[in-house]
Amino acid sequence: MGKGYYISKHLATAAMVLAAIALVTIIALSVVYNREKSKNAAKFSKATTLPVFPTPKTSNEPWDKYRLPDTLSPQYYNVTLWPRLVKNANGMYIFTGISGVMFTCEKKTDLILIHSNKLNLTVFKGHHAKLTGLSGVTAPAIKTTWFQSETQYLVIQLEGKLKPGKDYWLYTEFTGELADDLEGFYRSEYMENGEKKIIAITQMQATYARKAFPCFDEPGMKAVFHITLIHDRGTTALSNSQEIKNVIIDGMPITRTIFGPTKRMSTYLIAFVVSDFTYIDAKDKKGVRIWARKKAIEDRQGDYALNITQPILEFFEKYYNTSYPLSKSDQIALPDFNSGAMENWGLVAYRETALLYDPRTSANGNKQRIVTVVSHELAHMWFGNLVTVKWWNDLWLNEGFASYVEYLGADYAEPTWNMKDQTILYDLQSAFAVDSLTSSHPLSRKEEEVNTPSEISEMFNTISYSKGAAVLKMLSEFLTEPVFAKGLSVSFTVLSLLCLFSRLNQAVDQTPGIKLPYSVHEIMNRWILQMGFPVVTIDTRTGNVSQKHFLLEPEAVVDRKSEFKYVVKHHNCDITFENPSYKSNGSKMNGCWPTSMCRDTSEAQILDDAFNLARASIINITLALRTTKYLLREREYIPWEAALRNLNYFFQLFDRSEVYGAMQAYLKKQVKPLFEYFGTISSNWTTVPSGHTDQFTQIIALSLACSTGVEGCRELTRSWFKKWMQNPPNNAIHPNLRSTVYCNAIAAGGAEEWNFGWQMFQKATVAAEAVKLRSALACTKVPWLLNRYLEYTMNPEKIRKQDATSTIGYIASNIIGQPLAWDFVRANWDYFFKLYGTGSFIFSGLIRDVTYRFCTPFELSQVHDL
Ligand code: BES
Ligand code: ZN
Predict the structure, then answer these.
(1) What is the mean pLDDT of residues 592-621?
(2) Is 784 exposed, middle or buried (0-12, 13-18, 19+ CB in 10 A)?
(3) Contact (CB, 8 A) for 500 and 479
(4) What angle do CA 174, 180, 182 make, to 5 degrees?
(5) Active site residue 173
(6) Biggest alpha carbon–alpha carbon distance for the chain
């Protein structure tokens, strides 16, 4: 009893810490964000010739609003950009550009607002732009122009009004920095044959197109783009559409690549690349090409991606019942890339680890990552690119949808992998984990709630991706897959919930045999408009069924009041929700365990539920732990992975406390049979099993056996690593097992092992191998090595900017590294915030990683002090 109290007190504090971290993170983010923003603004004002006006907080001026007015709509752009891949006289990398946009005036106005950020615009007769009327219309003269730094606008005030229905041409010339900041038009560097190579690449989502050229940078402001890139002869230029002309410029070592007009598209999907990369293609009608560094392509690292891209495109053509809309589909692997991948229309960009696969050194997990990422991004080619959200508040529909159908595309490309079953781990359970906190939010946000670039960036979160995927999967399952796909119809261009649901309703009405108790809207609104999910209690004596909002912290106060009435009804001996629960896993899952559910996923779900219920103090922790007793006999991946995650949570909380020893001993006992089983079937670890997920289970067996001290495990991993150290060119460790082996050997060793690992990391030419080493280097128990490694994350020559925060995260997951990483991040907060604060999910991931173990009131107070 005493122990039970001890545990639940810790858990309660941990839940409070989690909630506090979320809150403090948001507050700290906004404070530092504003501070950094004003610093940037100061920097920017130096680059321009006219003054920058600060934004008064209460202003009602249109240039102080983050949303563009509805007075103008862009039709097409002519953009020419010239990135310089050598430093200029001031030691800077820059690009120059000229851009014209034809827009139609929709409503009478004497004001033009167009996004422009960190661009130095040429001044013509005192103004930053030229305006002309088209088809005989005379444009009013420009009165004044300035930059509104807060809202990132070039503001153009006119002497007279623009006329509704008339077209105008706005022309600008500009210079920008080709920085290594992973945003907008930026540069990436890598070494090849001892030579430093520089390439120019882009990342526009969500609000960085305005950093490459002035544009109406909202997803709803679609236009046609005519793009031209000027670049050195011998380099290749790529963009969204096919090259139509390549003009050599006489007397200069440069060439001009002109691309055909794009489809009508959003600015965030624009892409440019200038590089000396090479490609492989399948010579097929879809125009699939895989681009990467020359060495990577020569080493055939693009072959796997090439094999799967074409089938996945064909799968989605059938799924959406619409042909792939473009004439080419380039996939490019970039050495520096902020997110995992980006769905630029026709030129999809990836981190190297998300596209390149080397069978000699990459693990099957790396292969799975590639097939799911490719599938996710290709799903966007229709859902997201052809049909696009009007504004970022609906982002969940875009990302949630791609996150759901990525499993369908991956399953088509790799039918023996049972990919669809993995949703339970990677979406459902991850969604539950954050949706059970008071800091969660409803999937759907009102348009007015999302305005600033940082509010937009916040939308790229687990709720949008994973809860979005889980809810859409549930919808697809209760409608049935064919009805869901039929209702999707991508024949409209604005992606809106209302449209989608009406079409799904129509599809239901047209399908005999399907009858819903409510409309799709009514069913789905409960899941979309309110946050969280219900915990349902069934009194087996009375048959009473009750429900309440499931919260990990039972006493927490929820600010967002919601009705929370998920309809529950009795059905024979089972209990079913009338509105199905999104705890669905591949069968008609209605809040209880149907017999058709496959065994391993249901075990995994029982286990995850039990741990969550225990964390919420609804059931006793011993009951949850009891669900792991059977693991002695378990050989399947999904339940083991679910168990591991939940047990890891407890380990991370208690690995500095007295219960640790007992937990360790228990887990050791549970995993021993699994370790022995794989030892036997793999002829004493010399082979790997043939089944895809069995290979994952084998990795779990080895890593858990070594970390809990199962006899023979550490000796094995140490001897494999030693052999490699004795003969570095010949690494005989199986790629699947490398992460575990490297980590264990470096943890057990000292500076010699660490330095060897570091050398191998620097020499690695396969990105997946480099990640394995980079994460293993964080396993050392030697504090000075960890501190030195932390310092490396601030030196892009040692650790790429794209990898800095995840490296700190690896160090924080090491019990010795955690306090070092926490101190390091606090000491260098401004540096990290400036670099990663507003882009994608990187910064929130960093905070989560360095505070993950926190569970005491003292640690809570440290978070408050941030
Ligand atoms: N559109 C996103 C990339 C992105 C994320 C851009 C955040 C800007 C901010 C892309 O479709 C995506 O979701 N990529 C994922 C991989 C995917 C398999 C979940 C990523 O980058 O991790
Ligand atoms: Zn996506």
Answers:
(1) 78
(2) exposed
(3) no
(4) 90
(5) no
(6) 91
- DSSP assignments along 219-239, one per residue: TT--BEEEEEEEEETTSEEEE
Task: For 717-729, write each residue's pLDDT tens digit.
Answer: 999 999 999 999 9
The Cβ-side half-sphere exposure at 810, using a 13 Å CA radius, reads: 23
Mean pLDDT along residues 746-750: 96
Atom 18 in ligand 1: residue holding the nearest Cα: 373
pLDDT value, residue 14: 46
Q: List Cα–Cα distances, 497 to 219, 393, 396, 515, 524, in angstroms.
A: 16, 11, 10, 21, 10
- Would the pTM count as exceeding 0.85? yes
CB 793 within 8 A of CB 804: yes
8 A C-beta contact, residue 81 and residue 229: yes
Ligand 1 atom 14: the closest Cα is on which residue?
A: 341
184 and 202 Cβ atoms separated by less than 8 Å: yes
* Residue nearest ligand 1's atom 15 by CA: 340
Centre of ligand 1 to C-alpha 336, Å, is 15
Q: Which of 377, 553, 603, 634 is catalytic?
A: 377
List strand residue ranges (DSSP E) for 260-318, in order: 272-275, 278-281, 288-292
- Dig out the tokens for 108 from the structure: 């009478």
Residues with CB under 6 A from ligand 1: 205-206, 339-343, 372-373, 376-377, 380, 399, 402-403, 460, 840
pLDDT at 394: 95
The residue nearest atom 2 of ligand 1, judged by CA position, is: 342
Q: How far apart are CA 495 and CA 311, in angstroms?
A: 26
226 is in an annotated binding site: no
pLDDT surpasses 60 at 580: no
Rounded mean pLDDT, 745-763: 97
Q: Which ligand is nearest to the CA of 375?
A: 1
* Cβ 407 vs Cβ 372: under 8 Å: yes
Choose the residue to mutate in 342, 399, 406 for probing ligand 1, maximizing ligand atoms within 8 Å of C-beta: 342
Helices vs. strands in the chain: H and E counts, helices first: 28, 26
Bridge partners (DSSP) listed for residue 100: 78, 171
Neighbouring residues of the ion ligand 2, judged by CB less than 5 Å: 399, 402
The tokens describing 212, both together, are 């490459």
